[in-house]
Specification:
about 240 residues, alpha+beta, Lambda Exonuclease, Chain A, six-stranded mixed β-sheet, PDDEXK-like_dom_sf, PD-(D/E)XK endonuclease-like domain-containing protein
Length: about 240
């Protein structure tokens, strides 16, 4: 599910294959923002390798996917004025991911109740959700973008049970990268980002300024990644 306002024109037509998290422009594969940021986070990569067969880790991953899916449904229903709330419980109960149902349902209900309180005014300001963006070099898909005073704000949904300063900083860089893609598509931004932490405690909105330091950090990460991969492709070609 994705939505883009009729008055927004993007430079690139990006195709996103969800199953393998791959981006294509004219059948050419482009790196994703999440992959680029993770590439520079060796601790996270090693942790993921260690935990990939751990049942609790798998359950948390599936829970996050389910919650993201239903947040998308709730947003879609609100924007297009279709009401599927009665079906949410049924859809979850019919899911094969039985172990995550009860916990996911509680969180989805909390988000629905939160969004229902703000949606009448908020949906009028939404300009995009789950819409792939690109600058012709990298691609990414922000969860949600809305206008405040005619300037775009990027929202990223996180379903963390536990988080620390490192996780918050990584999310800030991710949002900074999406903000960069908006600017490359000639969309005015407010240089404000929001991390919506959605869990058993409800919805906590972490609003922050996209500083020059965050922008420099993203630029350094992106350029280093592109340079390293360009050199790798060159070496493979020469061999």
């Amino acid at each position: 599910m994705q939505f883009i306002s009729n008055n927004i024109k993007l430079k690139y037509n990006v195709n996103f294959e969800k199953d393998n998290h791959s981006y294509f422009i004219d059948n050419i594969v482009f790196p994703s923002i999440t992959a680029i940021i993770s590439y520079f986070n060796n601790t996270e990569i090693q942790y993921d390798k260690l935990m990939k067969n751990n049942e609790l880790f798998k359950k948390a991953t599936e829970r996050g996917k389910i919650i993201h899916e239903f947040i998308s449904r709730i947003l879609y229903d609100a924007i297009f004025q279709t009401e599927n709330r009665k079906n949410y419980k049924t859809i979850i109960k019919n899911s094969k991911k039985i172990s995550t149902i009860k916990e996911s349902l509680k969180i989805i209900e909390l988000f629905y109740n939160f969004f229902n309180r703000i949606k009448n005014d908020f949906i009028k300001s939404i300009i995009m959700f789950e819409t792939p963006l690109s600058d012709g070099k990298v691609c990414g898909t922000p969860d949600l973008i809305y206008y405040e005073n005619n300037k775009a704000i990027v929202v990223d949904f996180k379903t963390w049970k536990y988080f620390n300063a490192e996780k918050i900083n990584k999310a800030k860089i991710q949002i900074t990268a999406y903000n960069y893609l908006l600017e490359k598509n000639n969309i005015f931004t407010s240089n404000i980002g929001e991390i919506w932490i959605i869990n058993e405690n409800g919805v906590n909105i972490n609003r922050f300024n996209i500083t020059n330091q965050l922008k420099l950090e993203w630029q350094e990460i992106m350029h280093t990644f592109l340079k390293n991969n360009s050199n790798k492709e060159k070496r493979n070609y020469e061999n």
